[in-house]
Amino acid sequence: MSNPPVAPRQVLTLTVVHAGVSDPSSTRLLADRIAQKSIDALRDIGIAATVRSIELGPIAVEIARSIVSGMPDPKVQDAVAQLAESDAVIAAAPVYKAGISGLFKSFADLIDNDLLIAKPVVLAATGGSARHSMVVDDHLRPLFAFLRTIPMPTSLYAAPEDWGSTDLGKRIARAAGELAAVLRSGAGRDIADGNRAGYRHAFGSTATRAEHSTEDVDFDTDLMRLATGGTARPPAGDRADGR
To answer: Would you put residue 101 in left (φ > 0), alpha (ψ -120 to 50) or beta?
Structure first.
């Protein structure tokens, strides 16, 4: 027997995560258009939804610090927690030198491998040339396949000449319709709930924040003193007190 669709009174949460850094940002604009069209598509089938946004530009330093230190920065943890609590994700990245931005990839490297399992995702990118249009499927789709999400069949890419084209609007509407259909079916939720006990959580997971707390870390060891810019203690025989 098939599972019932999402109840119309349930309010879903869509989270936009984008790595646009310019102001105004074409990546942010594309992500916002996808989010609005997704809200409209869900409303048409009787499902209410809200949108939250994660802007990676303002936390770029915290992302870099988390990668270098191996310890999650609180701002990065909050961003990851938003993803974990979302019903769907709209992921948008600018394209530089034929690849997604390093900022977006760095943030993705901090996401727990099991955090987004079976979560519906719309993939999008922007760039300065139509030559980069395959980056969405060549880079973003494998990345989110590795994270075991459910990427929508329609990927979205916008070059400068696309903004005045009706075709971009049609593709956005198609991707939004696909997202609404998957959310209404509840398939992603059922897959995640049915297998949650077998998932392992690592760095970045909101389920294991306590495991990565600094409260139990001994910062007075020689290794930690060196890591934090201090100096190691001299050997016992060289200490002035003879200890």
So the answer is: beta
pLDDT for 24:
87
Residue 221 belongs to some domain of the structure = no
Within 10 angstroms of residue 25's Cβ, the number of other Cβ atoms is: 19
The pLDDT value recorded for residue 182 is 97
Average pLDDT along the chain, 243 residues, taken 10 residues at a time: 54 97 93 98 96 97 95 95 96 95 97 94 95 93 96 96 94 98 92 68 42 48 57 55 45
Question: Rounded to two decimals, what is the model's pTM?
Answer: 0.78
Distances (CA, A) of 233 to 74, 224, 239: 31, 11, 9
CB atoms within 10 A of CB 63: 25
Q: How confident is the model at residue 200, as a pLDDT?
A: 54
Task: Tell me how many domains the chain contains.
Answer: 1
Helix (H, G, I), strand (E, B) or coil at 88: strand
Which CATH number characterizes residue 170's domain?
3.40.50.360
- Is residue 225 situated within a structural domain? no
Residue 187 in domain:
yes
CA angle 106, 112, 116 (to 5 degrees): 100
Q: Is residue 242 part of a domain?
A: no
Rounded Cα gap, residues 19 and 71, in angstroms: 21
Closest CA to 87 of 33, 51, 56, 111: 51
Full domain range(s) for residue 199: 11-207
